[in-house]
Amino acid sequence: MAEFDALKAKLPGEDTGIEIKHSICAICSPAPHCGLTCYVKDGKVIKVEGWDEHPDSKGALCTKGLSNREYLYRKDRLLYPMRRTGERGEGKFERITWEEAYAEIAEKLNGIKAQYGADKVAFYSGYNKWYRSMLARFAHSFGSQSYGTEHSSCFASGLMAWQCATGMEMGMNVMTKLFIGWAANGYYSMYRLPKGIEKLKKLTGLKYIVVDPRITPASARFADLHLRPRLGTDGALALTIANQLIQNGWIDKEYIDKYVHGFEQYAESVKDYTLEKGEELTGVPAADIRKAVEMIRDAETMSISESSAPLAHHHNGMQNYRCIMSLLAITGNIGTPGGQYPSEGTFSERTTGYDTHEREFMFETYPEHADKAVGADVHPLWYELRRDMQANDLAQNILNQDEHSIKALYAHGMNYRMFAEDGKVLEAFRKLDFFVDVDLFMTDSAKWADIILPCCTSMERSEFKGYPGCYIMYTKPVVEPLGESKRDVDIITELANVMGIDDPVLCSGYENAVKYIFRDLPVDLDEVMKNDGFTKIEGVGVKSSEWYMEHGWRTPTGKIELYSEIIGAHPEWGLDPLPTYTPPVNPDPEKYPFMLCSGARMPHVIHSRLHGSPWERSLMPDPMVEINPEDCRKLGIDMYDDVEIVTSIGSLTFKANPTNTVSEGQLFVYHGYPERDINSIIPYRELCDPYSGYPAYRSVYCNIRKA
User: Fold this and answer.
1) What CATH number should be reported for the domain whose range is 18-72?
2) Answer CATH for 170-316+324-338 from 3.40.228.10, 3.10.580.10, 3.10.180.10, 1.10.10.1100
3) pTM for this prediction
């Protein structure tokens, strides 16, 4: 028998020199930020596993989280500050010191402020979220409203819909009798959701409806009913269900009379959505819609998971949300046991269970008298509810080259490929007087910057992190930052000091800023920083559903608003105060008979950031398009053939992947491949959502042909 090799087995101990250290995964959104157990030897991470004692993830990790070691040591990591030496986009840089970088940035940004005004500098955050309260305050204290994030295309549209209805964010609840996963594919994202659903189905008899155009692992494994609407028709499906509930009297009239505003107008607006019309608009058989209605009728309680991207990335995206949410309002499932409940992010965009002063910290230096944030005139509801930049409008703002145009951009994690019609973003980069990008990697966007600053991963830094159950922790670096990389928050505060920003709280540093945010909570953050684990904050809590039911919601009427008084007060916006449906826009039905979804998820990548990790890329190396086999037969397309997708603004070639998980007439392209940048052929202005400004990534009419 071969001698056991403890070092090869990566076992911690004095004999191997391997230590166990803990951190968090920050590759994807702030909601999970799952716990990491890192095996460290000689100052390097050699293995990553889940952290069993983590109060939220409890030892679980998805495929993205398991790639953290490779993510940390990627060959394209940025290690030093650099200054551009070649043409923009050429990728030629020279190494400089942090002092030189800060001095040049301060000179350029302060110079633009003096010449054109502070509001001609935009601030943007893309790849991560933990530092965003700091970046927002930096922008506001500098004097600019034009601070924006990737929320311009993710999450915020659904939040805006809930703001119109209740004035706040609302969370899903799996502890219910009927759970509807509306565009929720838990095996590819929200990886812990399927396990919970399976467990509850066995223990409580939970019923589960999946609404998704594709057959997914979630629908195949445990859906009691799978509804497959055509892309972009979710709102029509929801209104059809609503009309059947109303016409049959299967609604909670007592609840509606007491807590809901605008029901009569709403009921009148949906009365034409018969089962037959619903089938015509959505492609879902009337019998299946009827079955869904009956399941809702028979359920004592109901909750819906409305995914933050698939439902929003349409011309009618925010209205999709509102139509779906209306089902909860008319059945009495908002703020009641087993229904949707208040679930606001109170620290670092995370629902924690305690209130903080984070929003005050972000907005108490907000420059009210500066030029309105970019996009405010184009998407006024966005500005009314968000008060920040709609970043999808940034490129056009710059290209306009007028008195309102942005002159400089300071960004953390800028990814131009996340924007529709993203060739315009590159044109806009050329027009900028100055562009700074802070990033982990030499991305295609970083190559266009004048100054690049290197930041570090979650495994190389300390940060405060909040979790549900009133937990807080202060992470510790498991390895030293690579090269001269720094925490994003340190870059922001050090730069603010060099620039002479008149904001003592911001300039005092990240840890002091968090103490300011937590100042009324019964917790000693100095003690938290000494602790290697989690601290539970006792004796605190946010307002419950019962409180809002008794005292009123944060809306003009204090009720759950089917008719939004915020929208209704501004007829000049041309937006409908009621949840209504409009079909996706097709510029030429004969020329573009197919519908394209350009944002299909894969379980092992997020955006383009993990396509640069060899292990992750190996799982699906080639850009592919999913197409129904019957469409392939008609077009003479076989597996792995080169096929060309054509939209109104361009074309790209992909490998064909015939699959019956996709319905006829619909195409699904996995996003994030730089060499096949699907967003480059997605039109923006004519297809974007007028309510939120979101691009129609998931309902673009197109054609496909064998290349």
Assistant:
1) 2.20.25.90
2) 3.40.228.10
3) 0.96
